[in-house]
UniProtKB/TrEMBL annotation:
InterPro entries, per database record: Tetraspanin/Peripherin, Tetraspanin_animals, Tetraspanin_CS, Tetraspanin_EC2_sf
PANTHER family in the cross-refs: CD82 ANTIGEN, TETRASPANIN
Record organism: Mesembrinibis cayennensis
Family per record: Belongs to the tetraspanin (TM4SF) family.
Keyword tags: Membrane, Transmembrane, Transmembrane helix
Chain ranges passing through the membrane: 15-38, 45-68, 188-211
The organism's taxonomic lineage, starting at the top: Eukaryota, Metazoa, Chordata, Craniata, Vertebrata
Subcellular location: Membrane
Main location per the UniProt record: membrane
Any Pfam family matching the protein: Tetraspanin
Gene Ontology cellular component annotations, sorted alphabetically: plasma membrane
Membrane topology: Multi-pass membrane protein
Identification of the protein by name: Tetraspanin
Length: 225
C-alpha cells in the first residue's frame, strides 16, 4: 500500500489549504456582506470589502505561483502518479476513490500513464501476470473502457508474455494530454478567471459606495447646532 507521504507533496498540500481557506472566507464574506447591506452597518461592509480584496490578491498570487513553479509541480505530479500506477490494485478498496479518479482521467483525456503506457510496466500486478493484463481505462476500445473490472485480458499474448507495445491502448501520456487540454481551453479558463475578478471588483466598488451613502445619511441626520 502507498504511504500517505507518497501520495502528497508540499505544493499540493499548500494549494489544498489555500482552497479550503478561500472557500471558508467566501462563505463568511457573503454572510457579512448581506448582513451589512441589509442593516446598513458600515464596519461589516468594510470587512466585506477587505475579504474581497484578500481573495483577489490570493487568486493572483496563486496564479503567479503556478506559473513560475510549473516545472516543480510537474515533477511532483510525476512522482505522485508514478507511485499510484506502481501500486494500482483493483482489489484494494482502501485506494478505490483515488484509483477511480485516475481511471476517469485516463478515460476522459484518452491517455495512458503519465508519460506513456510504458509507466504501467512498473505495476506489480501486471508484472506478476507477465504483462498479459492491461488497464481498461487506457484501452482505445469502448468495450474495455465500459468494463467494470480495472484490468483487461490481452486477447492473444505472445508466448505467454507481452509488453506495453502489445496492448490496445492510447499512445498519448496523460501529461501531454493535460497540457494539450489546457492549451485548447486556455481562452475559456482565462475568460472565467477574468469574469470572477470583474465580479469581485464590482463587489468591492459597491461596498465602498454603500459605505459612502451610509456615511452621508448619518451626517445629514446629525442635528445642527
Amino acid at each position: 500500500l502507498l504511504a500517505p507521504t507518497e501520495m502528497s507533496s508540499p505544493s499540493l498540500k499548500t494549494a489544498a489549504y489555500v482552497l479550503i481557506g478561500v472557500g471558508a472566507l467566501t462563505m463568511l464574506m457573503g454572510f457579512l456582506g448581506c448582513l451589512g447591506a441589509v442593516n446598513e452597518i458600515r464596519c461589516l461592509l468594510g470587512l466585506y470589502f477587505t475579504c474581497l480584496m484578500v481573495i483577489l490578491i490570493t487568486q493572483v498570487a496563486a496564479g503567479l505561483v503556478i506559473y513560475f513553479q510549473k516545472e516543480t509541480l510537474k515533477e511532483e505530479l510525476s512522482h505522485i502518479v508514478g507511485s499510484l500506477i506502481e501500486n494500482y490494485d483493483p482489489w484494494n478498496n482502501d485506494e478505490r476513490n483515488l484509483q477511480d479518479a485516475w481511471d476517469y482521467v485516463q478515460t476522459q483525456i484518452t491517455c495512458c500513464g503519465w508519460t506513456g503506457a510504458e509507466d504501467w510496466e512498473n505495476n506489480k500486478i501486471l508484472i506478476n501476470h507477465s504483462m498479459t493484463l492491461y488497464p481498461c481505462s487506457c484501452s482505445n476500445s469502448s468495450k474495455d473502457v465500459q468494463a467494470e473490472r480495472r484490468f483487461c485480458n490481452l486477447d492473444v499474448p505472445v508466448n505467454g508474455t507481452a509488453t506495453y507495445a502489445d496492448w490496445p491502448v492510447h499512445e498519448q501520456g496523460c501529461m501531454d494530454g493535460v497540457e494539450k487540454w489546457l492549451k485548447d481551453n486556455l481562452g475559456v479558463i482565462l475568460g472565467v478567471c477574468t469574469g470572477v475578478a470583474v465580479i469581485e471588483l464590482l463587489g468591492m466598488i459597491l461596498s465602498i459606495s454603500l459605505c459612502k451613502n451610509i456615511h452621508s445619511e448619518d451626517y445629514t441626520k446629525v442635528p445642527k447646532s
